[in-house]
Amino acid sequence: MNCPQCGILNAVENEFCSACGGRLRATGGPPAVAPVARVFRNPKRLTWWLQSLLIGIIVVEGGLAAFQLLQLRAGGAVEADELVTTVLGTGLIMAYIATIVMFCVWTYRANANIHALGAANLRFSPGWAVGWYFVPIANLWKPYQVMNEIWRASKSPNRWYNEASSSIVGWWWFWFVISNVQVSIGASPQQEALESAISPSGLISIVLDVIAAVLAFRVVKRVGLFQAEASERSVSAVFA
After folding, report:
1. How many whole angstroms separate alpha carbon 118 and alpha carbon 6?
2. Between 89 and 16, where is the model more confident?
3. What are the backbone dihedrals phi and psi of residue 35, each rounded to the nearest 5 degrees, phi first?
4. What's the rounded Cα separation, in Å, for the pair 124 and 112?
5. CA distances from 127 to 104, 109, 134 (A)
6. Burial class for 149, CB neighbours closer than 10 Å (0-12, 13-18, 19+)
7. Start-to-end CA span in the chain (Å)
8. Cα(2)–Cα(17) distance, rounded to whole angstroms?
9. Would you state the pLDDT for residue 218?
10. Calpha distance 121→66 (Å, rounded)
């Protein structure tokens, strides 16, 4: 069959093109998206902002947990405590909204960049890299596949399909899902803070959120570094 990337005729039983190394569609897997014409845009600034927001969430969540523990130890909340917890809860909600928006923008940019770096036979377009987060049921596993592809293609654009899946991405997604399941079962830390309520489930949610945020920070940082290094290698190859 003809390779969808370079058009060279290959044997039907081949998994990869003998000329360009691209994955052929005869393997039975999901079809690759059409190549997307993109210009590489350095994600350094977006990565910095997203990392800063994640650090902000970690700090505010930690402060909220410490304050609630002090309230429990004191045997209850007074009016001044309610004001502080409300301020912390409102700040946490605003931080989460800003982080979600920035994460979507960063994910779109990161996916567009792996197309620009020349990665072939990618499964996800920039739009769907973000869109899968908002599709019920499918958002339990599709975003993980998106991020795993971004990680592998950022690390090795030309041979990304030979890269092993990242354990960091897997652990991030595991704790992200667990954190969201915990919130769906009980009240979120933000809601409890706004209501000046204290419960063990709220403290557990805070711990899960912090773990997920720390792992997300590591994923974002590594992908940003991978893409910067891949861009430098491409420029060096052009002027070599």
Report:
1. 13
2. 89
3. -55, 135
4. 10
5. 10, 10, 12
6. buried
7. 35
8. 9
9. 96
10. 48
**Mean pLDDT of the region 127-150:** 96
Check the CA dihedral 81-87-89-92 and report its sign. Answer: negative
Query: 186, 208 in Cβ contact below 8 A?
Result: no
Return the residue matching tokens 């979507």: 104
Q: Which residue has the tokens 């998206």?
A: 33
Q: Using one digit for the tens of pLDDT, what is the confidence trace for 148-200?
A: 999 999 999 988 989 988 999 999 999 999 988 876 665 555 555 555 455 66
Q: How many residues does the chain have?
A: 240
Nearest-10 crossing angle of helices 167-185, 142-155 = 160
Q: What is the model's pLDDT at position 56? A: 92
Which letter does DSSP use for residue 159 in this model? T
Instruction: Report the C-alpha dihedral over residues 41, 45, 47, 51, rounded to 10 degrees.
Output: -170
Using CA of residue 216, residue 219, residue 223, residue 226, what is the dihedral sign? Answer: positive
Encode pLDDT of 18-33 as tens digits. 555 555 554 445 566 6
Domain ranges of the chain: 1-31, 41-239
In this structure, how many other beta carbons lie within 10 angstroms of the beta carbon of residue 237? 8
- Cβ neighbours of 158 (radius 10 Å): 17
